[in-house]
Amino acid sequence: MREILRVCVYCASSRQADPEYAEAAGRLGRSLAREGATVVYGGAAIGSMRSLADGALAEGGRVIGVLPRFMYDMELAHPGLSELVLVDDLHERKRKMIDEVDAVVALPGGSGTYEELLEAITWKRLGLFLNPIVIVNQGGFYDALLQQFQRAVDGRFMDGRHLDMWTSVADVAEVVEAIKLAPDWSEEARQFAAP
Predict the structure, then answer these.
(1) Which side of the chain, N or C, has fewer Cβ within a 10 Å radius?
(2) 179 near 101, Cβ under 8 Å?
(3) What domain count does the chain have?
(4) What is the DSSP letter of 130?
(5) Dihedral of CA 20/21/24/25: which sign?
(6) How much is the pTM?
(7) Interval 4-51: pLDDT, tens
(8) Residue 175: is it exposed, middle or buried by C-beta count within 10 angstroms (0-12/13-18/19+)?
(9) What angle, 0 to 180 degrees and rounded to 10, lies between the N-to-C axes of helices 19-34 and 47-58?
(10) Residue 40's beta-bridge partner residues?
(11) To the nearest whole number, what is the mean pLDDT of the chain?
């Protein structure tokens, strides 16, 4: 089983979402901290993002936030992080978040979370990111997206092997094990990702 030292988590900033999502984010933060993993996330102090960071910090974990300067100027930064990395824009933020992590985890979220998740999957498809991707399908949140991926395979827009690029779990309690047991992926994926 693989070692987990650093995990990138994509999650929501919404304050209006059902509190169960923020509660789950806090549980994930605590779980990753107990595993000894550094949490890398978007750096904000609102919504599930805050709960994730607070959960990890409460367990003595290390949390790195990556925040664009314009969001910092809007006073969105979490004040208690182990480290806050300020970047120029969203593109740099996504790159910094995924650099040198052992896994990516996507919690339920909105357009920003979708964008981050789909970019990570695209990088994996092209052999640019080789580590596990875990989609937390809490309450069936990602059912439609997972069905859409299957449609892409059925329509021959993706190879059936691409469905192994991620693992879907129903609850954050399953994330650590899913990372450890995720199938290996290699740069050879480029061979069947090519048109």
Answers:
(1) C
(2) no
(3) 1
(4) -
(5) negative
(6) 0.95
(7) 999 999 999 999 999 999 999 999 999 999 999 999 999 999 999 999
(8) buried
(9) 30
(10) 8, 64
(11) 95
